[in-house]
Specification:
five-stranded mixed β-sheet, 23% strand, single chain, alpha/beta, 2 domains, Metallo-beta-lactamase, Chain A
Length: 173
Amino acid sequence: MIASAGDSAVSNGRRRLSCSDPAKPLAPVEVDRVIADRETVQLGGIILTAHLTPGHTKGCTTWTMPVATEGKTYQVVFYCSTSVVDRLVNNRAYPNIASDYEHTFAKLRHLPCDVFLAPHGSFFRRDDKLAAIQQGRKDAFVDPTELQKFVDESASAFRQELAKQQAGVKTTK
C-alpha cells in the first residue's frame, strides 16, 4: 500500500474510515510506503508519478503516466477528487482545507492530460466513452480538454459551497 503522508494517518490502525454506512467502518490498512509529490512508482514497465492534490482528503493523490499506442504517446491522469466532502469553514480537523483545494485546482490546471480517468465513471463520462468504443471509435477516451473542463466545473462548485458555508458562519455569529 502506497499513500501520501496526509492519507497515511488514516491507515496503520490509527483511524477507521466509514463509507456511506457509518455502521460499517472500513478496516485500517498498513501503509508500506509514504510517497511525496512528484515521486514515482514503477509497476512492471509502467512508471506512475504522484501529484499531491489535497482537499478532498488531506493526502489526496492524483497519478499520471504516459501510455504509448499505435505510434502515439498519451498522458493519462488518474484524478483523485475535488468533490467537497467536508466542512470548508472552521474545520478544526483540517484548518487549511479551503486553501488546499485552491492550490489543488491550480496544480491540476497545469497537468498535461490526454486521457482523463477518475474514481467515479460519471466524472469522465465513462459510459458514453465505452459506448463509443463499441461503435468502433478507438480513441473515445482521448480528449485533451476534458480535465481542464472538469477542474473548472469542480472549482466553481467548490467556490459556491465555500461562499455558502462562509455566509452561514457569518449569520450564526
